[in-house]
Each structure stands twice: as structure tokens, then as C-alpha cells.
Amino acid sequence: MSAPHTSSSSPTVDDLGAYVPGPRVHVAGRPGGPLSGLRFAVKDVLDVKGVVTGNGHPEWARTHAPALNHAWAVARLLEAGADVEGKTISDELAYSLTGENFHYGTPLNSAAPDRVPGGSSSGSASVVAAGRVDFALGSDCGGSVRVPSSYCGLLGLRPTHDRISPDGIAPFAPSFDCVGFIARDPQVFVKVARVLLQDNGPAPRPTRLVFPADAFALLGDDVRAALMPAVAKVEARVGPAQETVLAQDGLARWSAAFRALQAAEIWQSVGAWVEAVQPTFGPGVADRFAAAARQDPAEVEAAQVMRQAVVERTRALLPPGTVMVLPSTPRVAPLRGSAAADTEVTYRHLAMNLLCTAGLAGLPQVSMPLAEVDGVPIGLSLVGRRGSDLELVELAAALCAPEGA
User: Fold this and answer.
1) CA–CA distances in Å: residue 105 to residues 17, 56, 140, 336
2) Which helix (H) or strand (E) holds 178?
3) Between 20 and 30 A from 390 (CA), which of 119, 335, 339, 367?
4) What is the three-state SS of 265-332?
5) In the chain, how long is the greatest CA-to-CA distance?
6) What are phi and psi of 178, to 5 degrees?
């Protein structure tokens, strides 16, 4: 593979508002690899050798040196022949699900231009949705691949925790953080997954489907009605869904445990930097960092107990051969410029009721672009047991393939 270089003398025009400001980064992949001819973007929380990883904040970029090596996932994709075509904007230190960066703006959601792209992998989703690249790397802690995939009408994978090496990712919440990716084309989705998962073997086909009634009960009537035909499409391939209750303790309690554990890990990872640099954060993000700084240790300890209960519940619910359908998000993308109290607090908490399960249990989840509400995309997800990533990817690709393909 070649050394990284930037576009010529002046920054490349970015009509999407999705790329990191400045000259565009390009790195050529190894000729002849299985991904040769494909172009990908890299979320600016992952290292590209010789380039500063900005982590969604100008002060982070100012206080950090260029990366000495590629992140593992970047190196793996380059070795497989894909070309890096730019680094993309993230929400500030990846601590948001909205995609509106206080410092860099809001990347365009081509599927719904008046709405946010979702975050924190906002720029990655934007460039894939617009067809500028074939796929893009993102990261997913609380939903940062799944949410923008749902909002922008794309396929997105949050893998089993640590299934894809996190080496070369900016510090955040290590027991939750995953390197994932976003794609438009189902065949590309499978090819990239096989490279990153390092799995070329046959994937077994799931034979049992579960339907968590409590998760779908969180949806408005319009969203539920839009998703049910997609659920029926999954049933046609796997079999009739068996209705169940996912969280006998309540999904809101699972979500609260997730937020407590995530905040404690985030502050341990970046709290010293925040206190030393005193960076300016936008609405919502500032409040979450302030709360993380004063996280109650007793609350964190109780959350660890809840996390183990979630692991045991999902292990029982998802034996080999079983897949669960789950709404990717509780509603379509909010309008750009909506009140922060809505997007960054009320809606974030509602979304985390759906998103927290995979994070707490370390499970793989694929969001699929199988539904719309009034022409605006919304995703349906597949969730499986740990290690079932390729099963989910291949099932999702089959479900999202064009008619007759």
C-alpha cells in the first residue's frame, strides 16, 4: 500500500459538510486484493498514519500529534485493496447520537436533507449515502453506527465486542466501543464484513426468530406500522417470530445502567484531558461530560450487576440459530436544528432503551434499510448471540438485495 497523501494545494470542495476540514486524505490500497476498486472513508476517531486524529473536536486535534500507524481496521482494509478517500466528521469526542457538531456543523443526510444524519459516525454515513464512497468505517459505543445507518437508509454493523480489533481508535468507553462500518450495497457489505471479521467460511442460516414485544411497544403507531412489513420479510426467510419480553426488569433500567457504566468509562478515558484543556462542548455533550465527572461509584457498581443480568438474559434468549428483530431507532431522524432538549436528552434516552442491549451484552447488531415513515428512512435491526456477526450480515444482505437479485 502507498503512503498517505493529501489533495493538492487547497482543500477539496465538500458540499456534504461531511469531511474533516482541510486537504483530503488519500491512501491507496494494495493492488489485487479482494476489495480492490472500492473506496472507503474513515471516521475521525480512527488513526490514519501521518494524520492527526481529531476526534470530532478542534482542541483534540490541536493537542494531539499525527498517528504513528494506521488503526488495525484501516490497515486491514488497505491490505485487502480498498482505498482511503478521506476522513469524516464525528460528533464531539463521539459523545452524541445526533450528528450536529457544534464546531464543524451537520453533515448532509442525502436520504432526508432536512434532517440530521445521526451520530456519532455522521460524516461516514453522509458520504456513503451520497455515493461518494462505497463504504465507511465508524465506531459504535452507544449506537454510533446503528443510528446514522437507520437515519440515512444504510446497512450498518456493530460487531460482537472486540471481534474487530479496536487498536488505533481514540479512547472513549473501552468495554462498549466497537469498530463498525456502513455500506449501501449488500454485496459490498458482505465483502467488507468478511475482511474485517477475518472469516471466509460459510455462515449458518438462522432458523429461529424472536420478537421483543416490549421493544416494539416503545414505538409510535406510525413507526410500528412501517416496521411490521419488514419484520414479515424476516419471518419469510427465518420462520414465524416467537413473541417474548426482552427486559423483564424494563428496558429503561437497562438503559440507565448502560449510561452509568459508559459515563464512568468515558471520564476515566478522557477526563484528565477535559480538565486540563477545558474545551468548549456543544449543547447536550457538555451536560453529559459534566455528569460523567460526578458519576456516583455506587450507581456504577449497581449498573455492573445489572449488566451481568443482561448478559445472562440475552444468552438464554439467543442460543445458536436464533436471531432477534429490533427497531434500530424509535423514530426517524429529527429535523436539523431541533431543540437540544429534545434531540440530546429526551430522544437520546428513548433511543438508548433500544440501543443499550447490544452494548451491555457485547452482541452483534445489523441495521437494515427496510422501512420508511412518510418517505424518511428508518432501520430494522437483527441481533444475534456473540460471534454470530457473519450470520447476521449475510441474512441482512439477502433481505436487502434488490428484487430478483
Assistant:
1) 7, 11, 20, 11
2) strand 178-183
3) 119
4) HHHHHHHHHHHHHCCCCCCCHHHHHHHHHCCCHHHHHHHHHHHHHHHHHHHHHCCCCEEEEEECCCCC
5) 59
6) -135, 145
Nearest to 189 by CA among 402, 390, 403: 390
The dihedral built from the CA positions of residue 339, 300, 60 and 5, taken in this order, carries a sign that is: negative
pLDDT tens profile 236-269: 999 999 999 999 999 999 999 999 999 999 999 9
Beta-sheet pairing, 5-6 with 25-27: antiparallel
Phi first, then psi, for residue 208 (nearest 5°) are -140, 135
Confidence of residue 405 (pLDDT cuts 50, 70, 90): low
Q: What is the CATH number of the domain that holds 377?
A: 3.90.1300.10
115: amino acid identity, one letter: R
pLDDT tens-digit readout, 206-233: 999 999 999 999 999 999 999 999 999 9
Q: Which three cell numbers stand for residue 289?
A: 461530560
> Given this model, what pLDDT does residue 8 score?
32
pLDDT beyond 80 at 404: no
Task: Catalogue the active-site residues.
Answer: 43, 120, 144
In sign, the C-alpha dihedral spanning 291, 295, 299, 303 is positive
Q: What is the rounded distance in angstroms from the CA atom of residue 338 to the CA atom of residue 396?
A: 32
C-alpha distances out from residue 400 to 106, 364, 374, Å: 28, 18, 20
- The residue range of the domain holding 394 is 208-400
Q: Facing residues of 384 across strands?
A: 323
Among candidate residues 143, 177, 197, the one where a domain is terminated: 197
Same domain, 33 and 156: yes
